[in-house]
Amino acid sequence: MADEMELEKNISVLDPFKGLLVTYFMPETCYDDFFLNFNFLNVQCLKIVLSKGLGYGIILGSMMVKLPQILKMMGAKSAEGLSFNAVLLELLAILGTTAYSIVSKFPFSAWGETLFVMLQTVTIGFLIQHYKGKTGIGFLLLVVYFGLLVLLLSPVTPTLVVTYMQASNMPTIAISRLIQAASNFRNGHTGQLSAISVFLLFAGSLARIFTTLQETGDLLMTLTYVISSTCNGIIALQVLYYWNAGIKTKAD
């Protein structure tokens, strides 16, 4: 009798949070297992909660992942060291991932960061043109890019086209990152490339491998993040290498 009363008390205390937890973090079966049966060792449910938590964490981080890069460019009033071609290819990859995720009806926690990364990356593309004295081309980029997004999400575009775009993301991401890596190597420095943004992107893409497998099971998306993590890792290593080289040069 006492156990039943204690159980009812726990249920009433958690009732205000049940809707939030079940909607965003776990299915109702996991909620019951955790908070009614007190089985906190359910591995499958723990994986779901971890994946959801990581997903929302990545989305929150993505809101400012490229903000240091934008602020660094605006502070220096320069886009030195940044490749516009690499940014264009990255924007193309983001466009495909966003459209594919929406069309496939994946949960927002599995792809939401691409929306915020898109807004920040297109801002970087605009600033590159602006600081080159080509502000008109920067505005044209904004109009064309968001026009393409609307077109891809409209009923006019067949689903197969969006799927092909996502499949093309793997070489697109690899080429875009390698263009930036080649630019860094050629210049002998990383210019206005923000170390904070680079490392946040690397960490986020690594975490996305797990969350994508867990939440969507989509191999196309998973392979995209594997390639993205590898290429982001190369640029992160370059940031460390040229940063240390710069310190040595100043010391000499």
Care to describe what's here?
This protein is an all-alpha fold. It is 80% helix and 0% strand. Mean pLDDT is 84; it is low at 246-252. It folds into three domains: 14-63, no CATH class; 81-157; 159-243, Up-down Bundle (Monooxygenase), CATH 1.20.1280. It contains eleven helices and no strands. It is globular, with a radius of gyration of 22 Å.
Walk me through the topology:
Elements: H1 2-24, H2 28-35, H3 43-62, H4 67-76, H5 84-103, H6 113-131, H7 135-153, H8 159-167, H9 169-187, H10 195-215, H11 219-251
Structural classification: mainly alpha
Strand count, sense and closure of the main sheet?
A: none
Tell me the β content: under 5%
How far apart the termini lie comes to 79 Å
Q: What is the quaternary state of this protein? A: single chain
Q: Any idea of the CATH topology of the largest domain?
A: Monooxygenase
Considering the chains and any ligands shown, give keywords for the structure.
single chain; 252 residues; mainly alpha; Monooxygenase; 3 domains; 11 helices; 80% helix; globular; disordered C terminus; transmembrane; repeat
